[in-house]
Design a protein that fits this description.
five-stranded mixed beta sheet, 10 helices, alpha/beta
């Protein structure tokens, strides 16, 4: 279904930013924690280092999200009181309540606007930014802050028992400020949001015994830690990633050559390489930064986007396709006219 109904209202991305923890975890660090090697990790994932938040000293998801939003507001030259709504994509809220959104709204100085979290794992920001576009085009909201932030390393087992996930994930946050414009050509052209709960068993974080799928035997050591069937997730990601690009291009009547930037979730460099080869996408149109940050879950897409903005590569009039896949299992796209 195409989403460019517009109704005379367009949507602009008027500001973006990223915020990363200071702490790092390199492949060499992991060599001292488990049976692995820098060469093995780089060959299979493309990752050299990742950021790790200091949760014990208060460097939480809401802290990363708050700093990313503050910077995005500054870059957009927008005061927090101008926001009509605040949406946060995260799967690692500080606690069950309050939401990260409510904490960020308080910290940046919003009015008593709506604020909430949306959990679609690594697809979270994609879902959230698509929803924000629709809410602005409905005429209900004018200016929305959108954040992707996760401190996933709090759920990682840094031992041989959990090394499959340990080599992949890092912490980080990115944010955007979206605003209504009279130019109805701007904003989301089309999008796809998919989920298949049958695949949930391949990537999950159990909090108690009943959270384990029927196929998995309960093991107390796995509680509160990422459990991943790496082979199944990789196969899913390669297949669905390419399918959703094809779906989105077909629906919009565009070709891969028409897209200026493919802003992709950074999960594994081999997955990104397979998409580039399948559609003939040149490297300059698909930024890969996983080597620096690892898989930052909800923060991944906005971090990539802001790096492109900061380097002057994103310009008005360009077409950008946001793409993601993650636990749930979830996947999707969001194609924008800037």
């Amino acid at each position: 279904m195409s989403d460019q109904s517009g109704g005379g209202i367009g949507v602009e991305i008027i500001g973006s930013a990223l915020h990363l923890p200071e702490g790092t975890l390199t492949n060499k660090d992991l060599e001292g924690m488990m049976d692995t090697s820098d060469e093995w990790i780089v060959k299979r994932t493309g990752i050299n280092t990742r950021r790790r938040a200091d949760i014990a000293n208060g460097e939480t998801t809401s802290v990363l999200a708050t700093e990313a939003m503050r910077k995005a507001l500054a870059n957009a030259k927008v005061d927090a009181t101008e926001l009509d709504l605040l949406l946060v994509a995260t799967m690692t809220c500080d606690s069950p309540t309050p939401s990260v959104g409510c904490v960020v709204a308080r910290e940046v100085g919003c009015r008593d606007i709506g604020a909430m979290d949306i959990n679609a794992a690594c697809s979270g920001f994609l879902y959230t930014v698509s929803m924000a576009d629709a809410m602005i085009k409905s005429g209900t909201y004018k200016t929305i802050g959108v954040i992707g932030a996760d401190c996933i390393t709090r759920h990682i087992d840094y031992s041989n028992f959990g090394r499959g996930a340990a080599i992949l994930f890092g912490d980080g946050a990115g944010a955007m400020v979206l605003r209504a414009t009279d130019d109805s050509s701007k904003g989301m052209i089309s999008h796809k949001m998919h989920a298949d709960g049958n695949g949930a068993k391949h990537l999950f974080i159990p909090s108690c015994e009943i959270d384990f799928p029927e196929e998995a035997e309960f093991d107390e050591r796995k509680l509160d830690k990422v459990q991943m069937n790496g082979q199944a997730v990789f196969k899913f990601a390669v297949t669905k990633f390419q399918e959703v690009i094809s779906e989105t291009l077909e629906e919009s009547g565009l070709s891969a050559d028409d897209i200026d930037h493919f802003v992709c979730h950074q999960a594994n460099s081999r997955i990104l390489d397979s998409a580039r080869e399948r559609f003939g996408i040149p490297s300059e149109k698909l930024l890969v930064n996983i080597q620096k940050y690892g898989n930052t879950v909800g923060g991944s897409i906005p971090i990539v986007f802001h790096e492109l903005v900061a380097d002057g590569k994103v310009q008005p009039g360009q077409k950008v396709m946001f793409l993601a896949f993650g636990a749930g299992l979830t996947w999707g796209s969001s194609l924008w006219q800037l």
